[in-house]
User: Fold these one by one.
Assistant:
Number 1:
Amino acid sequence: MMIRRCNLLSHVWLVLILLPFTLWAKTKEFHLTIENHVFTPSELKVPANEKVKLIIYNKDKVAEEFDSFDLNREKVLFPGKKTTIFIGPLQEGIYEYFGEYNPNTARGIILVEVNHAD
Amino acid sequence: MGFRKLLILLLIFSKVVFADGLVVDKVYHPYVLPNEKEFEWRLMSRQKENKTLLGQRIAYGQSLSETVMIEGYLVGEKTEVEDFGLQAYEIEVRWMLTEQGELWADWGMLFEIEKMHTSNDWEVTTGILFEKEFGRTSLTMNLFGIYEWGENLQDELEIEFRLKYRYRWLPQIQPAIEIYTGENYFGIGPAFMGIQRFDGQKQLKWEAGFITELSNSGKDHSLRIALEYEF
C-alpha cells in the first residue's frame, strides 16, 4: 500500500514537472541597459496579463543586482553581459525596481498596460 | 488536473507516511543567487503534553555557481532522553533547476547528508523544491525522501512534505500559512517572513511560524524561528 502511495506521489510531481512544456509559447522580449549605474529607459512599458522577457545589458565594469519586491525578482547583472529576467503575467500597474549596489541612481519602473502597443 | 485537486492529493498522501525527529523546520525556496554568502540560525521548539523537544542549527553557506549553493550546519538538539548538545553535522546542496518565472513554475532540488556527532549514524535527504507565483502570493512546496542508517538506526526510508502559501504584503512582513507532514504528523499554522536590506547585497531575512499538530489528540505545538544574514 505504501509503495502504491509513493508511486502516485511521484506521478503527481511528474505531471507538475511536465506541465510547463505543454504551455510553451513565444515570450515577448523587452530591453533595458544599465550604464554608469543608470537604467535606460527608466520607464519601460510592457503588456498586462502575459509573461515577458526582460533582457538587461550591463555596460558597466562592475556587477549590479536587479532587485524588485514588486516584481518578486532578484538577479545578479554581470558586467559586460546580458542577463535575462522573466516577469509576469502582471496586472496593470507600476512596478518599481532598483540596483542593490547603486540604489540612488540605478532605479526604474515597469509600466504594465492593458492596451499595450508592441 | 485542477491545481486544488493536486494539492489535496499531495496532502492526503503525505499525511500517512512516517519520519523521525522534528518535522517542523523550514520550507525551502528553489532559488540561488550567485556571489551569495550567508550565516543562518534556526530554532525549532516542539511542545507536547509534558515533553519539549528543542532543535537549533547554525550554518554558513555560499553559492558555488549561478545555480548551486552549499551550506554546512552544526545541529544541536534536546530530545526526550538527552539534554541540549551538539547532535550532528550536515552538508546541504541546493540546486536551482529553472530560471525564475521562465516556466509554469520554478523548480529546484536539495541534497543533504547528516552524520550524528557521537555515533556512526547517517541520514541522506533528497528533495524537490517547487514555487509558483499567483499575483502577489507565492505557493512553495517541498517533497523530501529521507534515508537513515547506522549503528543505532534501523535502515528506514521516510517521506516529508512541506508547504507555504505566502502573501507578499511588505518586504518586512509577508504573512503565510505553513503545512508540515511526516512522522504520522500533520501540522498547520500561521507564519511570516520578512527581509530588511542594507548596503549592497547585505540583507537580513527572518521567518517564524507557529504550527499546531492536528492528526492526534492532545497538545502538540511547534514554534520555529529562522534568521539569515546574507552578504
Number 2:
Amino acid sequence: MKKYGKILTILTFLLVLVGCWDMVEIDRRLFVGIVGIDVSDEPNKYTFHFSIPIAREIMGGEGGGGGGGVGGESVSQITTEAYSLIDAARNLALRINRDMYFEHMRIVVISEEVAKKGLKDVLNPFARQTEFNRRSRIAICDGKAEKVMQVKPWAEKLKAEYMESLYASRVMSGKFIQMDLGDFFHNLYTQNGSTLVSKITPNGTEVNIGGAGVIKNFKFIGWLNEEETQGINFFLGKVRGGEIVAEDIGGTGTVTFTILGEKAQLSLKTAEPIPEFDFKAYVTGDIASTSHAVTYDHDKLGTKYIEELEKVISEEIKAQILKGIKRLQEDYRVDLLKLNEHLKKYRPDLWKIYEEDWEDIFPQVSIEVDVKTSIKNVGILR
Amino acid sequence: MTNIFSKLYNNKKEELFFERDMSPDKSRKLKTNIGENLRIVNEYLSDCDDVITRNFYMGQGGKHQMSLMFIDGMVQMQTVQDDILKPLMLFTRQFPLEYNVGEKFFNMVKEGLLTAGDVKEIDNFGEVILGILSGDTILFIDKMEKALIISTRGWEKRGVQEPSTEAVIRGPRDGFTETYRTNVALVRRRLKDPNLKVKTIKLGRHTRTDVGIMYIKGVAKPSIVDEVLKRLNTVDISTVLESGYIEQMIEGDWLSPFPQLRRTERPDVVAASLIEGNVAILCDNTPFALIAPTTFLSLFQSPEDYYERWYIVSMIRILRFIAGFFAFTFPALYIAMTTFHPGMLPTDLVLSIAAAREGVPFSAVVESLIMVIALEVLREAGVRLPGPIGQTIGIVGGLVVGEAAVRAGIVSPIMVIVVAVNAISSFAIPNYSVAIGFRLLTFILMALAGVAGLYGIMLGLLGLTIHLVTLKSFGAHYLSPFVSFRFSESKDTLIRGPMPSMEIRPGYTRPQDLDRINDRRHDTIDKAGDESADQ
C-alpha cells in the first residue's frame, strides 16, 4: 500500500505543478527569424536587429479572437543597441511583453563593418548558448545588415523562409557557401579563426547569396566573387550542381554543361622544401545546350565531339579552380583549401615542422590541378 | 488485496440457504412421505409464486401419489406435458399397473414411462431446490426417499446474432448469446476434438451462475488450467451477473489500467485461443467469454487478422499500433511541443499554431483538458443513448459545438484536430477495454507533459514500460513474445507472417504441443498444382 501512496503523492504533485518549469505558451513567444548585427555609433556597442514574423498576419488574420488588419506588415523588425546579443535580449524585455525564441532563427546577418572589427565577441553567444538554432545560416552582408532585414521578397511572406530556401537550392550550389552555424563554428575554431563565409547582398526586393567572404583570424578581410567561390568549392569537392558555360567547338557559340556530381582527390606530391600537391577532380554532368542545331545526324555529336567538349569544359573548371587558389594564396594568404587539414591527417610529422610558419608557406605551395570531365548524357535528340 | 475482500465478505456472511459447497443441504435427505417432502420444499420456496406444484395420482384407485414441481417460465411446457404428464397420466391407463409402491415401481417410472431425455435420481433437498431454480422439473413419488430430476430447462432467449462489439468484414457472423450451453456448443462446433474439455462450476452465492472453463487437453499447459481453476474456486462473491465480475476477481494486478484477461464475443476467437493453448472462461447470462492468459499484443488483434491475406493484415496491424500510440500520447505531445519545445516543429506549423492560439483564453494544458473531457462526455452520452439519438449527439457535439467553440475563440482549431485524432486513434484499437484504458493514460501523460514537456512524456512512457514488463497474466509475460524474445514467434507480432510460415504456436502459454503446421505441405501442393496447370 505504501508504494501506491507514493504514486498517488507524485500524481498530486503533477496536478499542482502543471506549468511550473520553463513552459511558455506558443502564442506568448516571438519567433525570431533573422538576426542582423550592425556597428553602432557608441564604441563597443552593436546595433541588433531582429526580424520577427507576426503569426496572426502571416496566417491571414484567422483564428482566435478577431482578424488582424489586412494591410498590416507580416514581419516586424525590432532594433536595439547593446554590448552583446544577450544584453540586447535583456534590453528588449523592457519593451516587449513576449519571450524571444531563437530556435526558429534562420539566418544571422553580420555587416561587413562588424566583421572587420572581429567576430570573436559578437558571435560568442551563438556558440555558447543552446537556445540558438544550429542549423541557421550565417552570412556577411555587403553593406549594412539593416538593408538585408528590410528586403521585401515579392514571392514569399516570410523573409527568413525566403533566404533559407535560397540556401537550400542545389542547382547553384557551386557559387555560394553552403554552411550552417554549426559548421561555421566548427571551421572557425578548428582552423585558427579562418573560414569562408557566405556573402549576402541586398537588392530591394531580393538578396543575392552568390560569392563568399574570407575570414582570417576571426576578422573579415575580403570578398571572393562567384567564380572564385565555385573554384574553391570544386577544390573542396563540394559542387553538386550548377552550370559551366564554355566556348563551343569551332567557335560557333557557347555550350552549357550541367554538373551532376564531383569527386575531388588531393595528394601530397613532394614534401620538401615546400610541399607540392596534386589535385584531381572528376566532374560528371550533362550537356544542357550547345550552339549546334538539334539533329538526327549522329556524326554531328559523335564520340569525338563529346571528347573534345569534355576537354573544353575541364579547362574551364580548371581555370576557375586556379583563380580561386590564386586569390587565396596571393591576396588573402589564408589556407581555406584545407591543405593544412590534409597534412595534419596524412603527414602529421610534416605538419609539426610546417605548423609554425604555415601562413608564410601556404602562398608558396604549388598545386597541380587536373580536371577530368565526363559527359553522361547529351539529351534526347542529338 | 483479494484477502481483504474475502474477509469483508466473510464478516457479514448472511444467513443463506445455500452454503458455498452445498454440504448442509446435500446431507438433508428426502423423506418417505410425499406430503412431508412438499412441505419442506415449500418452506424453502415460500412466497415464490412462480413455483408450480402439480399433484396427481396414477394407477387404479389412485394408489400412486405423485407431485411435479417446476418454475413457470423456466421450463419448456411442451416437454413437461408431452414427456412427463402424458406418459404418467394417460398412457398408464391403457394397461394395468402391476407394481405396488416401491423400488420396482420407481424404476419403471424412471426407465419405462418418462420419455424426457435427461432423467436423474436425487435424494436430498439441496439438489431438489437447485434443480427447481435452474429450470428442471422435480418428480416426487410417494413412499420413496428419492425423487426424479428431469431436465426441462428452456426459457425465452436471444438467438445467435452478429457480435456488435467485434464486427468483422470477413469471418463468421455468429456471436455468443446469454445462454451458457449455447455458447459452449458454439465453441464445440468449431473444435470437434475429444480433447476439448469443459468444466463447469457454479459461482455466486445468490446467482449460482454456471461458469465453465474450456481448454484443450494436451495443448494447454496443465499448470495454467489448474491456476485458472484455483483462482475461480477462491472467488467467493454473492453475485456473478457478467463475466466482468469474474475477470476483476481473478486478475493478478487490479491496479493496472490494462485488462489481464481478453474478453470476446466471438466463438471463433475462443476456438483459436484454445488451440494456442489458452484457457477460456465462459459465463452464463453474458455473451462475453474470457481468455487467459492474455498478452498485450493479443489485445491489438482482430480475428480477421488471420482470415485476410498477410500483406494487408501486416499493414493494418502496424497502423493499429501507430493509432494505439497516438491514442494516449497525442494531446500530451501537442502540449509538450507547443509549450516547451516549439523548436522541434517546422516553422510554418509553429506560426500557424501560434496564430490559431492567439486570443484563446486558456493555456494549452487547460485547453486540452477541456477538449478531452468534453470528448469523453460526448462519447459516454453517445454510448448510452439509443442509436439514432446517439448519432445526433455525435453530430451536435462534434460538429456544432466544436465549430462554435472554435468560432467563439474558446479553443483553437488545431486543438480540435488533436483531440479528434486522439479519439479516432483510440477507436482503432480492436479491444474496447484497452481503448478506454488508453484514454485514461491520456490524462496522466497530459499532466506530465504540462509539468515537464517531452521529458515528462518520456518519464511517463518509461513508467508505463516498466509496468508492462513486470505485468503477468496467469504466469505469462504480458509483453511476450518481446519479453524472453524468440525469433520464431516474431512472425505473429507487429506484423502477421504468411500462414505457411507460422509453423509453431505462440510460446507464452507454454503449450505442450507446439506444432501448428506439421510440414510445409502448402508449398509442395501449390507448386505441384501450378506445374500441372501449366502442362
